[in-house]
Amino acid sequence: MKNRIEVEKITKDYGRGRGVFDVSFSVGEGEVFGFLGPNGAGKTTTIRQLMGFIRADKGSIRIDGMDCFEKRADIQRHLGYLPGEIAFMEDMSGDEFLKFMAQMKEIKDLSRLNQLKECFELDGRGKIRRMSKGTKQKIGIICALMQNPEILLLDEPTSGLDPLMQNRFIDILLEEKKKGTTIFLSSHIFEEVERTCDRTAFIRSGELVSVSRMKDIQKSRKRIFEITFQKEEEKAEYLNKHEDAAPKRENVEISVSGGMDGFIKELAGYEIGDVRMRMQTLEEMFLHFYGGEDDE
Ligand SMILES: Nc1ncnc2c1ncn2[C@@H]1O[C@H](COP(=O)(O)OP(=O)(O)OP(=O)(O)O)[C@@H](O)[C@H]1O
């Protein structure tokens, strides 16, 4: 698989620990790459360097072998880009703006645009100024997708969308993935990353802390058990014995990785009312990255 996006040791230092530091990753053709991280982690700063809006202080950042800053006009013309904060011409109606953007991008065939409008149930007749955040977001997404780009850069694409529209968007991403579009997507929303991405990078305080395949993440998932003990003293004993067990409502929650045999045999020694099991969510797996500096 050839790489379409290549980021090597880029640093953009805004001072006082803000910015991105020594960040490297690549995104292969047809790959969907998720960029997760808390507020202020450096997601937008990375995307702005990919678009050539700002220049890295150090390192190399290339799309299709072209330097993102030197060749920004070429790159910007060919990419589908959704900014985190969209600057609209607020006095235009949504439809006028979309038409204007299609002209700017020299798109003659408006069928994809109309298909996307329908998919997102966009009523573009009103002035953008009076539209809700979610409706503006839909317009931004349509702009990014309407020219059928081979590469998409999406900065928190579902922010402001209601759950139904978030799902529609995920379906569209999955269609794009089938077509072979290369997608770089920053997000706070674990579900959209989980359902769409092949690999996920996690960034915190400007540094990449992990890059993992979604398949490996799914494999290393723990099982989480919620156990109802019949006897209070047995519940207390179990909690005492297992540091990683925690009370949850009147029950006990514990995560178990690897073999189940020891766990089940131990439970058999107690009087149990109920046991429920679920898989750890992606959010729970990454939660420790969201904590303070003293976390793992
Ligand atoms: N032009 C700038 N000048 C100074 N500091 C900046 C500038 N742009 C971003 N920063 C700082 O760099 C850090 C990274 O910001 P960035 O917008 O990339 O984070 P983010 O991961 O996209 O966060 P969010 O999820 O909140 O959008 C933040 O501390 C931010 O305040």
Automatic annotation (TrEMBL):
Q: Which UniProt keywords apply?
A: ATP-binding, Nucleotide-binding, Transport
Quote the InterPro entries the UniProt record gives: AAA+_ATPase, ABC_transporter-like_ATP-bd, ABC_transporter_ATP-binding, P-loop_NTPase
Q: Which residues form a coiled coil?
A: none
Q: Does the keyword ATP-binding apply?
A: yes
The ABC transporter domain sits at: 5-230
- Per the record, the domain of life is Bacteria
Molecular-function annotations in GO: ATP binding; ATP hydrolysis activity
Q: Which SMART domains match?
A: AAA
Check the record and name the SUPFAM superfamilies matching this protein: P-loop containing nucleoside triphosphate hydrolases
* Annotated family: Belongs to the ABC transporter superfamily.
User: What PANTHER family does the record point to?
Assistant: ABC TRANSPORTER ATP-BINDING PROTEIN, ABC TRANSPORTER ATP-BINDING PROTEIN NATA
Name of this chain's protein: ATP-binding cassette domain-containing protein
Q: Which organism is it from?
A: Qiania dongpingensis
